[in-house]
Structure formats: structure tokens, C-alpha cells
Amino acid sequence: MLIDINAYVGHWPFQQLKYNTCEGLLGRMNKFGVDSSVISNLNGIFYKNTASANEELYDEIRSNRKFGDRFIPFGVINPIYAGWKDDLEVCVKKYGFKGIRIYPKYHDFGITDPACIELVKRVRDYGLPVAFNFRMVDSRQRSWMDIDYVVGTPKPEWNLKNILPIVREVPDAKYMILNFANNAALNDEEMGLVKKSNLLFDTSGRAITNMAEFIDRYGKDKFAFGTHAPILDYLTGQLRIESMGPSETDAQTKELLRSGNAKKMLGI
Questions:
Q1: Hey, which residues does 35 pair with through a beta bridge?
Q2: pLDDT by residue (tens digit) across 112-142?
Q3: 131 contacts 39 by C-beta, under 8 angstroms
Q4: What integer is the mean pLDDT of 90-106?
Q5: Number of alpha helices (DSSP H) and beta strands (DSSP E) in the chain
Q6: Tens-digit pLDDT profile for residues 21-62
């Protein structure tokens, strides 16, 4: 079984996307043998009111029964937008979404902003995971209208150290950290925090150059298959798992990465 924990529908203003609807994404899933995908709506990154994007996603999934059987929807919440608490409640109680995605860089707040901490705590209390991205696209190829997060600027792309402060603030939450990019070096205290936290990385990010090495470093329970589709290609995240030979890992670990760890995180 394959569960993709990092996929999207919707539009990216600075890049033409293909397969960015439920119908298109489902075709890719069928082609590559993916059973279920965690999806959110890219439009929520750019709408002032993310509730509109969540409603779009809800309506699209309800438009066809097969979508509800294959997709696991996450809402997008901006905790510095008025009414976000009501938006969160709608996502969970009305729409039945299974997690929340947060975009501090795009919505312009710090990862330990009191509002962000409160949101993570509320998501935790619902028993759901909260997802953060290292980055959405490669900043070296960004549009001049995109956010300024090139390396060397006041707000460069994140590395793992930049995300860990929220884990320290709310250590008992469930986290999905996606599109693993940039420096992964941690000191002993930071590595200890990662290992004891309920935290899952996906396999889409370019920093994962040797999957077996990352499993040895972080643990086999810390990774799950993810594509970052349709922004990134659909195969790389899967190949990082399937390319490991018998000397690098065993069949049980591969099954954890394909779906076991995702099932545990998502409660399915």
C-alpha cells in the first residue's frame, strides 16, 4: 500500500501546473500505484481568507464519490487572520479534514508567534497533525512577485533548525515536515528532540540524497512517502524508498515508509 502525505490541488501563480485537480491527481495515483493522498488547496497560500480555499477543496472532493475514497484532505489556516478559530472548527467539525497545513513565510508570521503556537495547540487537541513545509518551490527560480526567501536575504529558505522551535513550544503535537530541503545538521539536543517527538518527514525533498542514511540517522519511524505533487515530479519520492537494496534496509521498514508510518500519524 502507498500513501502520499504531501500533494495538492489548486494553482501556483508563478508556474503552470498539470494534474492539479482531484481528477488529474487521481489519474497520476492510479498510474503509479498510490492508494491514498493527503491533499490541500494551494490557493489557500495566496487567498487573504484561507476559508475560501478550504471550501473549494471540500466541494471538489464531494463532487465525486471516488475522491472521498482516495483523498485525505488537510485545511489551510492562517492564525493571524481574523476568524481563524472558526475556520479551524469548520475544517474539523463540518468538513471532516484530517489535518492542518500552516505557511508562516507566505502568511508573514513567525513560527513561534503566539497565534501560531495557539493554532498548533488547538490542532493537537483535536488529535490531528499540523504540517509545515521547508519550502514550496526552489527560491533560485522564483518570480519577482513571490516572497523574498532566497539564501542570504533576511528571510531565507528554512532548514530543519528553523522548524524545531515550534516543536519545542508544543512538544506533544503531531507534526508533518515536508519537502525536506537544505541543511539537515543537528546538534545532540536537537536530534534528541526530533527522535522523541511525534514527527514525520516526507520523501519528496531534495536534501534526501541517501534514504538509508537518513533512516539510520533519524529512525525508520520518521519518514513516509511523499511527492509534493504537482509541483515536483511523481516518482522521486517513491524511488528513494524502492531503490534501497537488502543491505540498506529490510522489507518491514519499506512498508513503514510506504504507508505504515502515515497510517499511524493520520490515525487510519
A1: none
A2: 999 999 999 999 999 999 999 988 888 777 7
A3: no
A4: 97
A5: 13, 9
A6: 999 999 999 999 999 999 999 999 999 999 999 999 999 999
Strand partners, 175: 130, 199
- Total domains, the chain: 1
Cell of 48: 487573504
Stated pTM of the model: 0.95
Q: How many Å separate Cα 177 from the centre of its chain? A: 6
Q: In what order do the strands lie in the sheet with 3-9?
A: 3-9, 36-41, 71-73
Residue 210: give its domain's CATH number.
3.20.20.140
Residue 228, domain extent? 3-266
Where do we find the cell 524508498? 241
Q: How far is CA 236 from CA 115, 123, 168, 182, 242, in A?
A: 35, 30, 31, 17, 10
| HSE value, Cβ hemisphere, 13 Å, CA-based, for 21 | 7
Of the chain, the end-to-end C-alpha distance in Å amounts to 13
What pLDDT does 140 receive?
A: 76
Q: Is the peptide bond before 13 cis (omega within 30 degrees of 0)?
A: no
Cα dihedral 206, 212, 217, 222 sign: positive
